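Researcher: Sit down with what I've pasted below and flag anything odd:
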Amino acid sequence: MNPAPSATGPSAMIYTDHAPTPALAPWVASYWSVEMGAARPGDVLTVPPDGCTHLAFGGSDRVLVGPQVTPFRVPVMPGLRWFGIRFWPGAARPFLGLPAAQSLRNLALPTAAVPGLAWVTALGQRVAGADAHSVATADAALLSLVPAAEPPDPRLWAAVQRILLATGPGPSVRHLADVAGMSERHFRRRFRRVLDLSPKELTRIWRFRRCAQAAAEAGEANWAARAADHGFADQSHLVREFRKLVGLAPGEFGRRTAATVHRRVWAPDGTAPRDSLARQRPDA
C-alpha cells in the first residue's frame, strides 16, 4: 500500500511491492509482502484502506480481504511473513469469478469459505514473501486463470483511473459519470455494486493516500500545507479524515511508519510499474 502499513511499537518491519507479469496488469495491481519484526504484547499491524481487494497468505491463513473503509488491523507475530495479491478496484470479482451479489465490503473471509477459491490453498503453501520465486509462483497460478477471467468493466475502469491519478480533492461524481458514459444515478449504483464502495468513498481514500505519500516524500509535517494541496477544507478536516481512514492523527501515523522499510511499485494507469526504494519518514 502506498503509504506502507504501520505497526505499533518501535520495531522495524519490511513491506515490499512487486509488479505482476504484464499479462495480469488489467486485474492485478501488485504483489506485496510484510515481514514482521520483534513485537510487544498487543502490537498490531494497521493497514490503511486502498479500495482494492486482496488475497492474503500468512502462516496457515488464506484470506480474501474485500475493500475496506476503515483501518484493517492484524496482530503482529514476530517473524511472520504475509504475502498478498492486490487486485485493482473492481477487478477481483471478474477475475476470480465471484458472484455479483456477494458483497466483500469490510469483510475478511477464509478462502475455503468462498466458492471457486480452492486453488488458493495450494498457492499459499508455495509463497512466503515478495521475492522472485514467490512472484513467479503467483504469476503462474494467476495466468492459468486468465482464459476464464472476464475483463474489468472498461467504463468503470476509466472512472477509477481518474480517481487514482487525480490531484487535489479528486473528481466529482458527475464528472466520473460523464467519463463512464452513464447517468449519475446509474453510475453510482453500478459503481457500488461492482466495487463495493461508492465513488465518493474511493475518492476520499485516495485523497488521503496521496496526502500521506506527499508528506512522506517531502520529509516534513506541514499538515496545513498538505491540507491545502490536497483539497481538504482545512487542517482539522485533514485530521478527521486521517482518524476515520487509519485511526490515527497524521503525526502519529507518521511516527508509527518511521521504521518501516518500503519498496514500492506503482502504476495506476496499468502500464509497467515504476520501481523505487523509500524509507517511510516519521512525518509520513
